[in-house]
Amino acid sequence: MPRQGRINIEAGIYHVIQRGIERREIFLDDFDRKGFIKRLAEGLKQTGHKCYGWVIMPNHFHLVIRTSATPLSDLMRKLLTGYALYFNKKHKRSGYLYQGRYKSILCKEES
Questions:
Q1: Between 71 and 110, residue with greater pLDDT
Q2: More confident residue, 43 or 1
Q3: Can you give the pTM of this predicted structure?
Q4: What's the pLDDT tens digit per position in 5-55?
Q5: Any bridge partners for residue 56, and if so which?
Q6: Where are the domains of the chain?
Q7: HEC assignment per residue over the chain
Q8: Are 14 and 104 in contact (CB under 8 A)?
Q9: Out of 3.30.565.10, 3.90.1150.10, 3.30.70.1290, 3.30.420.300, which CATH number does the structure's domain 13-106 have?
């Protein structure tokens, strides 16, 4: 059975979470963290999304993103794929880096 498509609301605020496979570390040093943030910044510029905050832990990260007309999945596909390719090449590994799909929780906005 195919999995359900994601809800995409233009100008919605999402709490995005992604974890390393088997809870393994996906950020081993400052170069990894800086490279991830650089990719995030490039993706935000290309998609028109805004990032209100992020937390980078050794084995997972959290983002708070306000979307534009472009679906959140466009940003996440570019960010996650690009970072996984970089990480695997740099650390001489292969295979999946992330545990499943990223979680995106639509946040309720109050004025």
A1: 71
A2: 43
A3: 0.93
A4: 788 899 999 999 999 999 999 999 999 999 999 999 999 999 999 999 999
A5: 61
A6: 13-106
A7: CCCCCCCCCCCCEEEEEEEEHHHCCCCCCHHHHHHHHHHHHHHHHHHCCEEEEEEECCCEEEEEEECCCCCHHHHHHHHHHHHHHHHHHHCCCCCCCECCCCEEEECCCCC
A8: yes
A9: 3.30.70.1290
Tokens of 95: 């295979």
Q: Count of alpha carbons within 13 Å of 29, Cβ hemisphere only?
A: 4
Q: What is the pLDDT of residues 77-93, one digit of tens each?
A: 999 999 999 999 999 99
- Give helix 30-47 / helix 72-90 axis angle, nearest 10°: 150
Distances (CA, A) of 6 to 1, 91, 103: 15, 32, 10
